[in-house]
Structure formats: structure tokens, C-alpha cells
Design goal:
This protein is mainly beta. The chain contains four helices and 21 strands. It has one domain.
């Protein structure tokens, strides 16, 4: 079990930060006259975590992908903080609108550093722009360029272009950087079908990759949900192995029927083909997930139950092709903590939507309109018996249970207090240790706007 002093330290820090938050705020409309409007906001984020039996008892790693050595630290406390001031503005002409925005991030990691040892060290800090874009809207057309967020669906493969490693971004877990480093996006908002034509550029942690593609979907999702098709190609990168990959996929979001008002279905299929410019190897990979859910709105606390099966192909031995699906540009938080970092231990430290087969069962209850309690169970396995090229004697990876309490008393404040417990199975023990890993978590986001 985690040591009592460590847990007490975590709770004391959480209490101090909670008391330090401002009690109220007001809207910040800086300018509104003659068709010109400008708004400002300030978002603050804090993530505090205590981890025991780090990396299943193997200890923290000394850096990214350095699996063979350990710092010897099996217990760590990690504090990550960020401030995100933003300015948005628009000017309305007779038949069109010119708009733009900029967001700056100041972020830091302290105490012992990021728990796994891979993504952020104590002392990492940065001040940098996240978004900086301009755009123009006229009728059904919307054209924008610059650094900005852009997501397809719930972000399974096109989510964001910034991996949030500490050496560049000051932190990891709180996701302070959300935008692609550069974009050119044309949105055509017609009915009954709308579309996006996009060019995207990632940060250097994702290989400074350049992506071009098209997305088509139905305009009105209120009746039955949203159906979409997309295709894109990575036309350039800096040695990460994405260049040459061609991708196509179909997805469904919030699919439902009026006869079953509590039911919703999410799912997506993605195919990766082409030839890797880095290795010259032919790519033949796939991923898909299906996630039905049902909310009992007439029951006390309105419980919602969800199940998700997700599959990401691994590389088959003794074949000339590469069957390993690459997670590429997935994001998190679009529909909760489980998208697309699947598990607060396994999804954030070990498994990154590559060579992975996962089952998730999630139960959510809502004691009030401003509180939620969520319980997750995950079973994770590898598709092929190897972990990023390291051989394993089996494919059974880990079981994980997460419990979270969320509170959101208004539209400015969001908080989460949680605990995650993961038990390694044979494949994980082959690479790391054989101890259960426990993580206590506290997250706050507060926005002045």
C-alpha cells in the first residue's frame, strides 16, 4: 500500500492550492464597438500526483524510451502547473468576418518530476505561444491559418499536434499545449454535408510532421448523430517514421435513435497504408474501436454504463510489411479522461494506442448536476508479443481500476480527485516490474473569462 506520509503530503498540497483559487470572476470583454470585438481570458491548471511502485516497481526511467535502466525511485510526487492567457478578436464587415487569436502558455514541472520519468523532469519550464492564428469567414466558407486546435471526431488519430513533453512544453499530464504548431484549414459548412480541407504541422516531439487531408461529415448531428469519412497523408517529417503513411477512416459519433433516448454509440475504423520514407517498408496497419453506452435518466443519480473495445494492430514477425498501427496525433479529454489515454497508469505511462487490445467498462453516477463519480475497469493486452520492439513472452499486459470524483460548481472551475490501481500481467512483467502500481491524482482547471 502507498505510504501514509506520501498521501498526506499530496492532500495537504491539494488543500493549499484549492484555498488559493480566486472565489469569483467576471467576463472580460475588452472591446465591443463598430463591428469590432475583443475578449480576454486566463486559464490556470494544476496537476498533483503521488505514485507508488513506479513502472510496476521497476522504478522511474531516466528519460523517454530508456527502458533498460532505472533511477531507482519507486515513489514520486509530481506537481505540474500552467497559466494560459488568451486573446481573441473579430471584426465584422458587411458580408464577412475577420478573426484571430493568440494563447501563451507558461508551464512548469516540480517536486520529483513526472512520475514515470519519461516525459518531464523536475525543473522543466517554458513560456511559449500555443495558438496564434488569423481567419476569415464568409457565408459557408471559413479559412484560417496559424497555430490552432483542430480535431476530427473525438481525436483518435487527428487530435492535436503537440505531445506535451517537459523539455519543450514544461509539463506532460495537464496538457497545457493544445494546438497544432501551424495549420491551414478550409471549412465548408454546407448542408446536408460539411467538410474540412487541412494542412497541419506538429511540434518536433511528433517529428515536425506535415499532414494534408480531407474530412467529410453530415452537417446536422442532432437527429441521429454524426457519420464521417476522412483521408490524409503525412508528406514530411523529421525521422519519426510517419512520412509516407496514407490514412483513411470512417467514424460515428453519438449515434442514437429517438426510440432509445438513453443510448449512444461511438466507433471508428482507421486504415494505414503507403511506404515508410524512413525504412522503405510497406505499411499495412489498422485500428478500430466500438463503444456503446446507456444512461438511465429516470434512475436516481442518472447512472451511465459504457463499454469500449479498442484494437490497434501490432507488427507480425516474419512478414515483409509493417503491420504496426501508429497512434500518431491522438488527443485526450474530448469525451472524458479515457479518450484517448486509456487508463491513468497504462494509458499515460506505457500503452499509446499502438500494438494494443483494450477492454474498458465505465460506470458514471451524478449525485448532482455539479458532481460526478466515475469508476473504470481496463484489461489491456498486446496484439503481438513485443513492446515497442522489446520481446515479451506473452501478450497479456495489465488490469487497471480507476476511481474519480469530479466537481464543476460553475463553468469556470473543474476539479478531479482520483486514484488508479494497476496490476501487471506477464507481458508487463517481462519489460518492467511485477508490483502493483498506485497513483493518487488531483487536477484543477480555473478560467477567468
Amino acid at each position: 500500500m502507498p505510504a501514509t506520509p506520501a498521501l498526506s503530503r499530496l492532500l495537504r498540497c491539494a488543500l493549499v492550492v484549492g484555498l488559493a483559487l480566486p472565489p469569483g470572476t467576471q467576463a472580460y470583454r475588452l472591446v465591443e464597438r463598430d463591428g469590432w470585438r475583443a475578449d480576454a481570458s486566463l486559464n490556470g491548471r494544476l496537476g498533483l500526483r503521488q505514485g507508488e511502485n513506479i513502472n510496476f516497481g521497476f522504478g522511474a526511467l531516466p528519460g523517454f524510451a530508456r527502458l533498460a535502466s532505472s533511477t531507482g525511485e519507486t515513489s514520486r510526487t509530481d506537481l505540474q502547473v500552467a497559466l494560459r492567457p488568451s486573446l481573441t478578436t473579430e471584426y465584422a464587415f458587411d458580408e464577412s468576418t475577420l478573426y484571430g487569436g493568440v494563447t501563451v502558455v507558461a508551464a512548469a514541472t516540480t517536486l520529483d518530476g513526472e512520475l514515470s520519468g519519461q516525459f518531464a523532469r523536475a525543473g522543466d519550464r517554458v513560456i511559449d505561444t500555443d495558438s496564434a492564428y488569423v481567419g476569415w469567414r464568409r457565408g459557408v466558407l471559413d479559412l484560417s491559418v496559424g497555430g490552432q486546435p483542430f480535431t476530427l471526431g473525438d481525436g483518435l488519430i487527428i487530435g492535436d499536434g503537440n505531445f506535451n513533453q517537459g523539455h519543450d512544453n514544461g509539463q506532460y499530464w495537464i496538457g497545457a499545449f493544445e494546438a497544432w504548431r501551424n495549420t491551414a484549414i478550409l471549412k465548408v459548412n454546407t448542408a446536408p454535408v460539411r467538410g474540412d480541407v487541412f494542412w497541419l504541422r506538429t511540434d518536433k516531439d511528433l517529428g515536425d510532421s506535415r499532414v494534408v487531408g480531407v474530412n467529410l461529415e453530415n452537417s446536422d448531428a442532432t437527429a441521429f448523430g454524426r457519420l464521417s469519412v476522412m483521408t490524409f497523408e503525412v508528406i514530411e517529417d523529421r525521422g519519426i517514421g510517419f512520412e509516407g503513411t496514407r490514412v483513411w477512416g470512417i467514424r460515428g459519433g453519438d449515434l442514437h435513435h429517438p426510440a432509445l433516448p438513453g443510448f449512444a454509440l461511438f466507433g471508428e475504423y482507421v486504415r494505414q497504408t503507403g511506404d515508410s520514407e524512413l525504412t522503405g517498408v510497406e505499411i499495412d496497419a489498422e485500428a478500430w474501436y466500438i463503444e456503446p453506452g446507456y444512461q438511465f435518466t429516470n434512475w436516481r443519480f442518472s447512472p451511465r454504463i459504457q463499454y469500449r473495445y479498442s484494437y490497434y494492430s501490432g507488427d507480425e514477425a516474419r512478414t515483409p510489411q509493417s503491420e504496426e498501427y501508429r497512434g500518431m496525433f491522438f488527443t485526450f479529454g474530448k469525451r472524458g479522461w479515457d479518450t484517448w489515454y486509456q487508463g491513468e497508469v497504462n494509458g499515460e505511462f506505457f500503452l499509446f494506442n499502438q500494438n494494443q487490445v483494450s477492454h474498458m467498462v465505465k460506470l458514471s453516477v451524478f449525485p448532482s448536476a455539479r458532481h460526478a463519480v466515475k469508476a473504470y475497469y481496463y484489461h489491456h493486452a498486446l496484439d503481438t508479443p513485443q513492446y515497442f520492439g522489446v520481446a515479451a513472452t506473452g501478450t497479456n499486459w495489465s488490469d487497471e481500476f480507476d476511481l474519480q470524483f469530479e466537481f464543476y460548481p460553475n463553468d469556470r472551475l473543474y476539479g478531479m480527485l482520483g486514484v488508479a490501481w494497476a496490476t501487471p500481467n506477464q507481458a508487463a512483467q517481462d519489460v518492467f516490474g511485477d508490483d502493483d502500481q498506485v497513483v493518487f491524482e488531483f487536477f484543477l482547471s480555473y478560467t477567468l473569462k
